[in-house]
Design brief:
The chain is of the alpha+beta class. It has one domain: 60s Ribosomal Protein L30, Chain: A (2-Layer Sandwich), CATH 3.30.1330.40. Helix content is 26%, strand content 32%. It has two helices and six strands. Helix 2 links the parallel strand 4 and strand 5. The two termini are 15 Å apart.
Length: 117
């Protein structure tokens, strides 16, 4: 089985399928003018699209790493996350604070998912 690269450019791919695992690059909101919850919702919609293109969905997410710029807004990110994630299929997750590549971004999410058997 060969690897498959999704939404690639000269620097990176937004997703890579290797074997039965899908690796997503860190995803940020296309409209950075939104608040923490709005940016998170945008990112999760984009993740749905990438997972579908890779042949899987959010019920097969294995792990997620989330970076937020301000832990005071952590609950806003979690509100969007909790409304999106599949109950009983919650992935292993880490959330840390950090500076992102552009100051207007408030959250970035990176994931790994499995392809359905």
């Amino acid at each position: 089985m060969s690897d498959r690269y999704i939404d690639s450019n000269h620097r990176m791919s937004q997703a890579v399928v290797h074997g039965s695992t899908v690796y997503l690059a860190g995803q940020v909101a296309p409209d950075a003018s939104a608040g923490m919850r709005g940016q998170t919702e945008q990112i999760l919609q984009g993740i749905d699209r990438l997972l579908a293109e890779a042949g899987t969905d959010k019920s097969h997410i294995l792990s997620a790493t989330i970076w937020v710029t301000d832990m005071a807004e952590f609950s806003e990110m979690n509100a969007a996350w909790d409304a999106w994630v599949v109950p009983g299929r919650t992935p292993a997750r880490a959330c840390v604070t950090g500076n992102l590549a552009m100051p207007e971004w408030k959250v970035e999410i990176m994931m790994m998912a499995a392809l359905p058997a």
